[in-house]
Structures are given as structure tokens and as C-alpha cells.
Amino acid sequence: MGDKFVQVNRVHDANSVGSRVFTGNGPETCPGTQRSLDTFPQSPSPTISDLQIWLIAAGLIAVDLTLFMFPVVPVLAAYVLVVRPPWFADFIDDVYDR
């Protein structure tokens, strides 16, 4: 038997623009098989290392903890007590006028 040819067409419909369609006979034309891997070569190694993945994950956790564990209320209270902004004085006057 001869070697089967795998043809790849681009789909241009509203649901899957640019998707690959494998046409051919038999299981050797299914995506992920050795034949399709030979036909469509892939990168032999990942483009991002494990160290980079761990550093990105640690950075995301650090940013998350910094943003969500930042003491917003004490900082706002210190600002109001030290700076005494006019909007806060207006708020206090409005509270006592009621």
C-alpha cells in the first residue's frame, strides 16, 4: 500500500475561522498520531522553561497578596487624621447637622 497523503484545509465559517480540518482515510490521519506529527512538525522542547513557569507563578502570588492584603482602612484613616481633607470635614459637619 502506498503512503497516504494528509490534506489540511482552513475552515472559513462563522464558528471556527482558521481551524484545521484533517481529511484522509484511516487512523493515521488523526491529529496527534505519528503521521500527523511528521506532517506538521512541532517544537521539540517547550518554549518556556520550568524555572520561568515557577517564577511567573510566584510573581502572580506575590502581586495577589500585595494587592489584596494591603491594609486599605488603616491607610485611609491615617490620611483622614493627618491631612484632614475638606471633604471629610464637610462629611462630619453634615453628620452633626442632622
Rg result: 31 Å
H/E element string?
Answer: EEHHHH
- Structural category is mainly alpha
Biggest pleated-sheet summary: 2 strands, antiparallel
Let me know the average pLDDT: 73
Task: State the end-to-end distance.
Answer: 95 Å
Helix content: 40-55%
Strand content: 5-15%
Strand order of the largest sheet: 1-2
Outline the low-pLDDT stretches.
Answer: none
Number of DSSP strand runs: 2
Which outline best applies?
rod-shaped
The count of helical stretches stands at 4
Q: What is the count of structural domains?
A: 2
Outline of the structure:
The protein has 98 residues and is mainly alpha-helical.
Give a description of the structure:
Strands 1-2 form a two-stranded antiparallel ribbon. The chain is built from 4 helices and 2 strands; from the N terminus they run E-E-H-H-H-H. It has 98 residues and is mainly alpha-helical. It folds into 2 domains: 7-39, no CATH class; 50-97.
